């Protein structure tokens, strides 16, 4: 149906429709129009079992700017703490008659499960190490906005690929849209099956950066590394951290992306994070546009964006 679960299964026309709609939504944001009645009478629940700043807030603002009612369920303050299951939590939210459930959960496939269990539209806001489709789409938007198109670009994804749902969503989208994708990180943070996905895999960062048009730097996910951080933070920063000298191996106009939150000084040096090449702050703004587009499309199913109040 209209669920947004993953980019692996999303067609290029679907992705393009979301990106084009987000372009219109960004024009709305840029004109500082923060209230339109488009989604009046619709309700959106943010159901987050893992922490979030960007995704949760931007879905909330996206819904509110478009006139929907938005409720946040932070599971640490919910009956999940009393042992209520995912299934029963979803059924409870459904019983309140909501139209969309935006869900982040630590288990891979949890959003597919939710889509089978309940009728409201499910939007995956990150399921374990599987996918984070709205992040992938906002990254495609950010690249396209600066580079014009994605086909033919050399994109280096650097860091903790193994634990990264952002890496997976980016890889699927970039490959479908015709980019050349390189991934680089320490062997301990590279999945074994990555070359079968159709990307070039490097266990050193320098060759992956050479001539790159886009450098997407991922967070080292300490919370998902059960056996301790290997390499250590100091070793990681020395061997893989993106500093000015390493960034200079990429094209002079290479874009720097990071989904956030950043470990500044670990995977990314401060002067790279805040350089002219960085679009990290713009990614956050684009995330709002993408989430407005997604809520609009899943709820209204149309292509005409109503922007007048
Ligand atoms: N990039 C991202 O998903 O950030 P949050 O975890 O803050 O939502």
Automatic annotation (TrEMBL):
<keyword id="KW-0808">Transferase</keyword>
<feature type="binding site">
    <location>
        <position position="54"/>
    </location>
    <ligand>
        <name>carbamoyl phosphate</name>
    </ligand>
</feature>
<feature type="binding site">
    <location>
        <position position="104"/>
    </location>
    <ligand>
        <name>carbamoyl phosphate</name>
    </ligand>
</feature>
<feature type="binding site">
    <location>
        <position position="260"/>
    </location>
    <ligand>
        <name>carbamoyl phosphate</name>
    </ligand>
</feature>
<feature type="binding site">
    <location>
        <position position="165"/>
    </location>
    <ligand>
        <name>L-aspartate</name>
    </ligand>
</feature>
<feature type="domain" description="Aspartate/ornithine carbamoyltransferase carbamoyl-P binding">
    <location>
        <begin position="2"/>
        <end position="145"/>
    </location>
</feature>
<dbReference type="Pfam" id="PF00185">
    <property type="entry name" value="OTCace"/>
</dbReference>
<comment type="function">
    <text>Catalyzes the condensation of carbamoyl phosphate and aspartate to form carbamoyl aspartate and inorganic phosphate, the committed step in the de novo pyrimidine nucleotide biosynthesis pathway.</text>
</comment>
<dbReference type="InterPro" id="IPR006131">
    <property type="entry name" value="Asp_carbamoyltransf_Asp/Orn-bd"/>
</dbReference>
<dbReference type="InterPro" id="IPR006130">
    <property type="entry name" value="Asp/Orn_carbamoylTrfase"/>
</dbReference>
<feature type="binding site">
    <location>
        <position position="135"/>
    </location>
    <ligand>
        <name>carbamoyl phosphate</name>
    </ligand>
</feature>
<feature type="binding site">
    <location>
        <position position="132"/>
    </location>
    <ligand>
        <name>carbamoyl phosphate</name>
    </ligand>
</feature>
<dbReference type="Pfam" id="PF02729">
    <property type="entry name" value="OTCace_N"/>
</dbReference>
<comment type="similarity">
    <text>Belongs to the aspartate/ornithine carbamoyltransferase superfamily. ATCase family.</text>
</comment>
<dbReference type="InterPro" id="IPR006132">
    <property type="entry name" value="Asp/Orn_carbamoyltranf_P-bd"/>
</dbReference>
<dbReference type="GO" id="GO:0004070">
    <property type="term" value="F:aspartate carbamoyltransferase activity"/>
</dbReference>
<feature type="binding site">
    <location>
        <position position="261"/>
    </location>
    <ligand>
        <name>carbamoyl phosphate</name>
    </ligand>
</feature>
<feature type="domain" description="Aspartate/ornithine carbamoyltransferase Asp/Orn-binding">
    <location>
        <begin position="152"/>
        <end position="297"/>
    </location>
</feature>
<comment type="pathway">
    <text>Pyrimidine metabolism; UMP biosynthesis via de novo pathway; (S)-dihydroorotate from bicarbonate: step 2/3.</text>
</comment>
<keyword id="KW-0665">Pyrimidine biosynthesis</keyword>
<protein>
    <recommendedName>
        <fullName>Aspartate carbamoyltransferase</fullName>
        <ecNumber>2.1.3.2</ecNumber>
    </recommendedName>
</protein>
<feature type="binding site">
    <location>
        <position position="82"/>
    </location>
    <ligand>
        <name>L-aspartate</name>
    </ligand>
</feature>
<comment type="subunit">
    <text>Heterododecamer (2C3:3R2) of six catalytic PyrB chains organized as two trimers (C3), and six regulatory PyrI chains organized as three dimers (R2).</text>
</comment>
<feature type="binding site">
    <location>
        <position position="219"/>
    </location>
    <ligand>
        <name>L-aspartate</name>
    </ligand>
</feature>
<dbReference type="InterPro" id="IPR036901">
    <property type="entry name" value="Asp/Orn_carbamoylTrfase_sf"/>
</dbReference>
<feature type="binding site">
    <location>
        <position position="55"/>
    </location>
    <ligand>
        <name>carbamoyl phosphate</name>
    </ligand>
</feature>
<dbReference type="InterPro" id="IPR002082">
    <property type="entry name" value="Asp_carbamoyltransf"/>
</dbReference>
